[in-house]
Design goal:
Number of domains: 1
Largest sheet: 2 strands, parallel
Radius of gyration: 14 Å
Mean pLDDT: 85
Low-confidence stretches: none
Shape: globular
Order of helices and strands: HEEEHEH
Strand order of the largest sheet: 1-4
Distance between the termini: 22 Å
Structural class: alpha+beta
């Protein structure tokens, strides 16, 4: 599992949508399709020498694990202030 951060939720959603589009549109060899699941949560994890830690990181991981390949799942915290995000998806 990879952890990345964005300063704004709208940037994170736009990046997630772009990732899904690129993976869908790319011609993979031998008819292979690559499908990833992306979970987004807004919070304030602690940055350590080993990476981000804290309950917000666990929350994002649980959201991501609930998805299927090709999906972008948002926590209510991420989704609530940005109802217009559907324009990105």
């Amino acid at each position: 599992m990879s952890q990345h951060t964005c300063a704004r939720a709208t940037n994170a959603v736009a990046a997630a949508a772009a990732i899904q589009r690129v993976l869908t549109e790319r011609a993979w060899p031998e008819g292979i399709s690559i499908r990833v699941r992306i979970g987004l949560h807004t919070g304030e994890p602690k940055l350590t020498a080993d990476g981000y830690i804290g309950m917000d990181v666990h929350h994002a991981a649980r959201i991501m694990s609930a998805g299927h390949g090709g999906q972008i799942l948002l926590s209510p915290t991420t989704r609530q202030p940005y109802h217009a995000l559907s324009d990105f998806l």
